[in-house]
User: Which sequence fits this backbone?
């Protein structure tokens, strides 16, 4: 391991990670961001890299693509001195001080504090054309709140796949824009809570295809329909739709932690207190979708990234034995200014 010990390492490259990097860099913490490596499931920049049009992020009245938004956030972080490494963190050791992080192929790195902002990935059906049309903006999405209001989906028949609360919520939300919403569910009853299921079933613009699964997505540049398969008889047929929303859950990117942070039963990192980002390990913070299974929005992720950076800054400033560090003296003064602003 190199002799150098970093003040702060940020793992991830979505809105939470880059926002945390901006705040940490402006506080002279010299943060290092491990932005990840491209894979079939995830690419640096997170889920927004799959989003062609974003109309609900503040400051962009004409909208912006997910790729452009992430690039701008990264450029802003780099402008203030953030170091960026294009690797994953393969494993961590939170039991030692300084903390030890092992990237996929370079030497291990030592750091005083960490922000985990690795996000969560949408669960997809894994069928032909689904991934291609999702990446190209061709009418396949995993977030109705993010994409449902786009002109592309308005006044069309839209399909939602799933049977849990998320699927019911997405279907109900889409009724504001669609001419009709069809829920596709592979069983004969929903697993959603009764109140959510009843709300969807009672809605005049929602229909349900029971005992049915999506076998394929039809269309070249844009979705034109879906091929349905009866889960009982195996018979197939086509349904014309103008959009497909996959609502079968998300998987937080926490496997590399190997249980060293407290998580929920679904793998989301648990924070010690509400409206805080400190985790079960001292000096380790978490932000973004990796702690959020409810909102899952770029703007909320960015907000928690800010929170995590301020908390990490405070932790470094007050940690025993670090008060003589010029970097940390600057951080402490910055925290003091923030506290004064809050008291005004």
Assistant:
């Amino acid at each position: 391991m190199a002799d150098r010990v970093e003040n702060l390492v940020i793992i991830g490259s979505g809105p939470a990670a880059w926002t945390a990097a901006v705040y940490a860099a402006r506080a002279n913490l010299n943060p290092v961001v491990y932005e990840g490596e491209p894979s079939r499931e995830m690419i640096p920049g997170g889920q927004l890299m799959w989003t062609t049009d974003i109309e609900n992020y503040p400051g962009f009245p004409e909208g912006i693509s997910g790729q452009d938004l992430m690039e701008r956030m990264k450029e802003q972080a780099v402008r203030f001195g953030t170091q960026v490494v294009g690797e994953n963190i393969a494993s961590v050791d939170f039991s030692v001080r300084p903390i030890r992080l092992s990237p996929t192929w370079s030497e291990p790195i030592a750091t005083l504090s960490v922000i985990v902002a690795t996000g969560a990935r949408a669960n997809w059906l894994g069928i032909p054309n689904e991934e291609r049309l999702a990446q190209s903006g061709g009418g396949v999405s995993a977030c109705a709140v993010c994409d449902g209001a786009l002109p592309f989906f308005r006044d069309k028949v839209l399909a939602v796949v799933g049977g849990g609360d998320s699927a019911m919520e997405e279907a109900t939300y889409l009724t504001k824009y669609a001419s009709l919403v069809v829920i596709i569910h592979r069983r004969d009853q929903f697993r959603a809570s009764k109140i959510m299921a009843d709300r969807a079933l009672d809605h005049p613009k929602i229909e349900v295809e029971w005992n049915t699964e999506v076998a394929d997505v039809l269309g070249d540049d844009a979705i034109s329909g879906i091929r349905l398969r009866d889960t009982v008889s195996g018979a197939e047929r086509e349904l014309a739709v103008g959009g497909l929303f996959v609502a079968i859950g998300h998987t937080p990117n926490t496997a590399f932690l190997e249980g060293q942070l407290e998580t929920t039963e679904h793998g989301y990192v648990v924070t010690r207190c509400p409206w805080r980002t400190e985790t079960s390990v001292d000096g380790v913070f978490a932000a973004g979708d990796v702690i959020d299974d409810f909102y899952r929005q770029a703007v909320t992720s960015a907000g928690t990234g800010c929170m995590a950076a301020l908390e990490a800054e405070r932790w470094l400033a007050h940690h025993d034995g670090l008060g003589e560090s010029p970097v940390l003296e600057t951080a402490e003064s910055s925290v003091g200014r923030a506290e004064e602003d809050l008291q005004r």
The chain has two domains: 5-121+250-343, 124-246. The chain is about 25% helix and 20% strand. The radius of gyration is 22 Å.
